[in-house]
Write the structure tokens for this entry.
Amino acid sequence: MSQVLTREDGWQLLCEWTPGEALRRHARSVEIVMRAAALQYGPGEEAVETWGLAGLLHDADYENWPDEHPDRIVAWLRERGMEEIAHAISAHYTAWGVPCESDLDRALLACDELSGFLGACCLVRPEGISTLAPKSVLKKLKDKAFAAKVDRGEIRIGAEMLGVELRDHVQFVIDALRPHAEELGLEGRASR
């Protein structure tokens, strides 16, 4: 039997499991992008809450239990009958080899790494996300030393799985995050 998990419940769990502000900010970024993705790539308004929760919770166990990621959050969700979100989080962790079967699965894979990468791009720009363009992001993606931990392969594969050009997907993620620049710390070096 599935329990209803509200956004507030998800945020409370994230805060309990993730003490660090940086990972919370990343989770919030992915939540914002996934809410927009439900409208852009998914079934629409009826999926916004579910897709947002998948984004919010996808790394909830990473900070405290990095060696068990994402097993703890996946198990927690499955105990509550939230298989759709659990499967998407399992599939986003490509090391498990869980296939992306749904639009939610594909979108989470496509939005997670790219959201983090855009955050890194914003940190080195005086104007942050306000003037960030896909051309700049694509150039930074070619620089393997920049944000070296970001899996560029997942970014490319994610866009392919969604059936969109990478440039267009980058613009979509920028557009989703831009209105939340202050909350997410994406205002750039000039604001510090």
The mean pLDDT is 94. DSSP finds ten helices and no strands in the chain. Residues 7-186 form one domain.
